[in-house]
Every structure is written in structure tokens, then in C-alpha cells.
Amino acid sequence: MNRPRLFTLVLALAGLLLALLILLPIIALLLASSPGALLQLILRSEVQQALWISLLTSLLALPPIFLLGLPAAYGLSRLNGKLRWTLETLLELPMVMPPVVAGLALLLAFGRRGLLGGLLADIGLHIPFTLLAVVIAILFVVTPYFVRRCTLLFDGVDRKLEDAALLLGASPFQTFMRISLPLVRRGLAAEAIMTLAQGIGLFGTIILFAGNLPGRTQTLSLAIYAAFESDPQQAFGLGALLLLISLLLLTAVKWVAPQESTQ
Amino acid sequence: MSGLDCRVQYPLAQYELSVDLSVKPGVTVLLGPNGAGKTSLLRLLAGLTKPRAGRIKLGDRLLFDTHEKIDLPPEQRRIGMVFQDLALFPHLNVRQNTAFALSLRRLAKTEINQQVEAMFDKLGISQLAERKVTTLSGGERQKVALARTLITDPHLLLLDEPTAALDPSARGAIRRWLHQILGELQIPTLLVTHDAEEVAWFRKRVAVIEKGQIVQRGSYHQLLREPQSDFVARFAGINLINGELREQGNEKIFLSSGGSQLQGIFDGVLPGPATLAVAPWEVALFAVPPGGSPQNVIPGRVIERIVLGDRVRVTLLAAEKLVAEISLNAWQQMGEFGEGTELYAVFKTREARVMNT
What we know:
The complex is a heterodimer. Chain A is mainly α. Chain A has 13 helices and no strands. The two termini of chain A are 40 Å apart. Chain B has a six-stranded mixed β-sheet with strand order 7-8-9-3-10-11, with helices on both faces. A five-stranded antiparallel β-sheet of chain B has the order 2-1-4-5-6, covered by helices on one side. In chain B, strands 14-13-12-15-21 form a five-stranded antiparallel β-sheet, with no helix packed on it. In chain B, helix 2 packs parallel to helix 4 (138-150). The chains are: A mainly alpha, B alpha+beta.
């Protein structure tokens, strides 16, 4: 009788410590600034710019992520065996890649002397250190996560519903649009918000591939890094601001996400 | 409307599914134990799985042929299938589910509505139109699934264990309903089941499948008389009483060859030679004739008692020979009568199926 009780105690203690580990820094950050200071911060134009760039690039990345990711995820979820395993591993490659390395890799692919650099220069496109570079960085890092989560969503769709739609005369595309997609709509809405949050938080890849140019490529995350060098107090305020945005997005995810039961 | 002709081969885990089957307009029952390959066969016909070899012809359209390299996708086969778990679309209501096939075509809204309403009327489910499918009872879901399929005007209808998922109280009513609807339609229909009672409703054409092969074909009668496999033999204990159906004014009555007057389900049965079928487990035994609700009572002497685990099979002989299967417990409580004892076999009117012979 004693042993399970001791074990329960261990579990509770681990949980408690983890909760402290999560909550302590968050509380510290929120305590470091006041609502008044936050308001003042938001009114500053360079902060507004960084906030705008953060939101804009994440929003701009959303349509291509959906356009590329949804068909890929659906296709992947209809596969079995070795092919699926191989493709999933390919998908996990950017996930295990350190963000800074991802930035370097993107430079080498799209930079002036990169693989596609000459080709891009010929058509007059210069990607690194532009807003487009920020969007591409988000695409590169976030899409694999999106695809993986959406594959799981589609895995949860009962195949028999799709079979039934086919037998009622629907083409595979009609079946996707009218059965599979509507069935995961709440999950997809949650994924969209999740993707926004991930994009807004991105740092290492962006700073290498897009630089830290205020007003052009400086997102809120990069602005915090820049401020920390010169004015730590401002960095804390910006941090609290970014944290509040993330909390807002998390609340939104919890609100739209299907709770436990998909059906 | 002409029927289905198919010859398909497909490797299953345990054995090879190898089926040669034709389905004429009307209902053909495919009877077989679980794991015999019934659902696999339906999926092959529907185009959801690809046969290793074979040929599937529906009317004069070739749906699949390995030699001619023809393999129509499911959406072009014009085959309607009602899945065992029905597969109603949970994000659509009853009306939207039923209209699904029509909404894929370029039809005017009014045209769609008309057809949907007509189908609702035909199946008697108009009152369900705006319900969410997740709130329907098992029987109601069955009806909606059939409506959704029939509206496509299928050239072949596949029903996978249509009553297996229902609770026993709803089963009888849905069977009766299905029997009536399918009788009116005359679409070539393949109804898959492992339940002998279901066969009793659709008894004209039965094919028995075991281990991927059709082992016997014929009417339910032929099957019961000359069972050619253990699986069929298990059902062969069904009581069959020969006689004729007579009309007395507005009343119908079954008069057995032995002279008993019996009541049963007479829907669609014509006056004349007929057979009454009742399963042994629907027959109860009494030492004194019971009164009360309308039921059939046949007296007889015990000629045989066989104990099968916790059940006992008691055969009574008088004007008719009748087998009753009751729990051993009940039999012991009655007093374990010896051979020669006079008892009364009793079964409910709605458990007695009557068919023309």
C-alpha cells in the first residue's frame, strides 16, 4: 500500500516543480513591467513597426502554408508503409535542424552566391534581408510542424465516410472538399492560430536569413534582442508584450480546438 | 433492369477470396459466418478494393476486367452501398446527407428538394429531415443511409449487415421495413448477413459464402433441407411447418397439413400452399396451455431431449413436429419431463414467418 502512495507523491512533486519552472519566469516577466509602461511602449512607432512586421509576415506565410501543407498532409495521411515513413522523416528534418543552421541553409539556397542566387538575380529578385526572406524563413521552419499536425487530423477522419462519398458519386477532390476538409475544420482553425504563434516567435532563422533591419525585417522577437543590448528595461516590456500576444493566441486555440472528441 | 455478373479473385489473410456470383433484380442474400469474406466481396464490387483478377459486369456495362484492363472508379460504377456502420456524414443533417449525391451534380435547388422530399415520403422519414444524424436512433440511421443511397438511383445495391448494429428490439421492425421497401424496388440487391433470421425474410435467393468461396446457392428452403456446410447446418434446426394460407373474409390464417390453425406474419403471402418457419429459440414450452396475448399453441408429446451446453432442445411430436430450444435452467424448473409427456409448444405470431411454396 505504501509504494503506490509514494509514487503518487513523486508524480505530484514532479508536476509541481514543472509548473513552477513554467510559471516563475512568466510571472517575473509580467512583474518587470506595468500596464502603463506597456501602453507607452505600444505607442512608440518603432515598436508598432516591429509588431506590424511580426503580424504581417506570419499572416503572409499562412496562405502558402495552407496551400502547400494541406494537400501534403492529406496525401501523407492516405499513405502507408515505407513511403509514408520516408516522407515523414524528410518532414522531420527541418524540425531537428537548429534555427540558426536553418537560416544559414536558407542563405546558401537563396542568397546571392547560393544555389538559386544566380537564377533569382537574373529575374531581378533579391531575397535575403527583405520582408520576403522573413516569410520564407517562417515557411521553412513552420510548415513541417503544420503538415505533421494536419496529417494526424486527417488520420482521424473515418475512411468509410470518404468511401461512402465516392460511392455516392463524388470525385476524390469533391470528397476532400466536402467531407474530409469540413470534418477537420475546427482542428484546422486551431492549426492556423498555432502557425501564427510559431511564426511570431521565430528568431534564429530570421536574424540570419533576413537580418535585423528596423522597419524592414525586424520582427518583435528581433526587436527584443536589439533592445536588450541597449535598454534592457525596454526589452522586458517588449517581452511582456510578446508574451501577452502568445497567451491571446493560446486562448484562441483552446477556444476553437475540438475538446477531446473529434466526433 | 438487368443484374450483376461477377467473377473475382482477391487474396485475403487466411485464404483466397474466389467468388463467381450473379445477382438478379430483387434481393439476393449472401449468408456466411464472420470472416468469410462477405465485406471484402462488397468492397471489391464497389471498387474500393481492386481484385487480383476477374471481371465485374453490371447490366451491359463492364466495371472491371483484368484482360481488357478496365477498372472504373467507385464514383462511376453506379453502385449504392450501405455500410455496416452506415457512415452517415456527421457534419450534415438528414436532409443534407440525403441530398449529398444530388448536390454534386449541377441540379437546380428546387429539383434537388423535390427529389429529396419524394425519397423522404417513399421511406416515411419526412419527420427526420432537419435532425442532426448524431441524434438519430439506430433504425432511423439505417433509413437515412438507405435514402441517401437510393436517391442516386443505383444499378446495384449492396447492404452490409443492415441490422447487425441495431438493438434486438429495433431489429424486427427494420427487417420488416427493409423487406417491404426492397420488395417494391426490384433493384439487384446483395444483402450480406451472418444472421439466419435475416435470411428468413429474404429467402428466395440465398448464396452461402465460407472461407472466400460460395459453397451453396438456392432458396432458404433448399438450404435448410440440404445443408451443404456446417454453417448452414447450424440453421437447419429451424422449424418448418407445411400447409396452406387461407383467406376467411378479411382474415388470413395458416392451416397446417396436420390440421393446426396458426397465425403468423402474412405480409405479401398469397393464399395457397405455404410454409411457416419459426426458430427453435422462439418456441416456449408449457405444461398447461397458457392464455393471454395472441400466440400459437401446438400440443405434442416429447420424443427427444438433447442438452447443448446450458440449452436444451426438446422435440415435440403430434400433428406437427416442432423443436423448442430453451435454457436448461428453465427446463429443470419445469420438471425435466420424460419422453411421452404431453406439453404445449407456444410461439408468438410475429415470430412465425410464412412463405409461399
